[in-house]
Amino acid sequence: MRNLTKQLLLSCLLLSNHALADLTPEQEQSRDYGLMLYNQHMGISAIEPLRVAAKAGDVDAQYYLGETLRLNAMYMTAEAAQWYEAAANQGNLFAMLRLSSTQDLCSLFTDCVRDDTEWRERALEQGRQRAERGDTSAMIALYLADQGLSWLEKSAELGDHYAQYLLAGFYRDGDGWFLIPGKREETIEQLLKSSSEGGYPPSMLLYISYLSKREDYAGVRQWIIRSAERGYIDAIYSYAAHSAHLPESFDFEKDYIRSYALFHILSELKGGGVAPEYSRNKLNELSSLMPSNQIKQAMAFAKAWKKSNPPPSYFLPAYGF
């Protein structure tokens, strides 16, 4: 759980200008649990755990509680705005951007004294100040605030692994200028490689397409496994499927026990996404191929995996829709 929390909080921590709240162990555990649920598309279930830490002053819990409330309602509610403002007042740039993009914010409060423009100005001012000090996450925020691709490129150049992932996607969509033939693909591959080596799981699963083209199947297997071991749901599914040769590719060793165990872990998820349903279907398929003693071993494998690896996560972007 601790490793997952570090992964989930990294961007938001760097986008806040204040120290973390002094949480009790129970409050910290509640925040971590809420973030886990949030990243499994279980927004409704995440509300109460996040609220515990948000009330204790944790800026990250405040921001993600605002996100959860807004996404669940599909619009900016009064409570969502309250928690965004709490996070913004602690220096969270994403919260400031959320507040600046809400046209009806002031109508939610009788004592509203700031307008949307002021929040945007604060985000840009503080973002530039931090970016000038080398804060790569602030550079990402400036890019997301439509201050130019150069901010994202600079963040990626300075080694921000999430920025490298975003920039690779930007180039893959055909944006940006490349005069030399083949330079675009070369740059995308290098960005994904750097991001993968830096430990960002979604990049690992994209990077394997380049290794696969070169038939570097050992490299493909390595990055699928690394991404799965860091909790990325898409990678766990891929590892499970290839372990059962469903389909047979990349020269994975056939291992029904491992495959069943990983599909079982995903089948337990209750949130959105197709992985849980697809995994349940795969379990039914594997059950007909495995004797009962192998299924028992698979359940023990699943238990050991959950103890030694972070909980499954979609690694949702800190500033998405």
What does this structure look like?
This protein is an all-alpha fold and 321 residues long. Among the domains are: 1-114, Tetratricopeptide repeat domain (Serine Threonine Protein Phosphatase 5, Tetratricopeptide repeat); 216-321, no CATH class. Helices cover 67% and strands 0% of the residues. It contains 17 helices and no strands. The chain has helices at 2-14, 25-38, 43-55, 59-73, 78-88, 93-100, 116-132, 136-144, 149-157, 161-172, 183-197, 201-213, 217-229, 233-243, 256-267, 275-287, 292-308. It is flat. It starts with a helix and ends in a 13-residue tail after the last helix. Residues 1-21 form the signal peptide.
Topology overview:
Blueprint: H1 2-14, H2 25-38, H3 43-55, H4 59-73, H5 78-88, H6 93-100, H7 116-132, H8 136-144, H9 149-157, H10 161-172, H11 183-197, H12 201-213, H13 217-229, H14 233-243, H15 256-267, H16 275-287, H17 292-308
Structural key phrases:
321 residues, mainly alpha, Serine Threonine Protein Phosphatase 5, Tetratricopeptide repeat, disordered N terminus
Quick rundown:
The chain is mainly alpha-helical and about 325 residues long.
Number of helices: 17
The shape is flat
Mean pLDDT, all residues: 91
Identify low-pLDDT runs: 1-14
The percent range for strand residues is under 5%
Radius of gyration: 21 Å
Q: CATH first level of the domain at 1-114: which class?
A: Mainly Alpha
CATH architecture of the domain at 1-114: Alpha Horseshoe
Q: Enter the CATH topology name of the domain at 1-114.
A: Serine Threonine Protein Phosphatase 5, Tetratricopeptide repeat
Could you estimate the helical fraction of the residues in percent?
Answer: 55-70%
The overall strand count is 0
User: Termini separation (Å)?
Assistant: 26 Å
Would you tell me the structural class of the helices and strands? mainly alpha
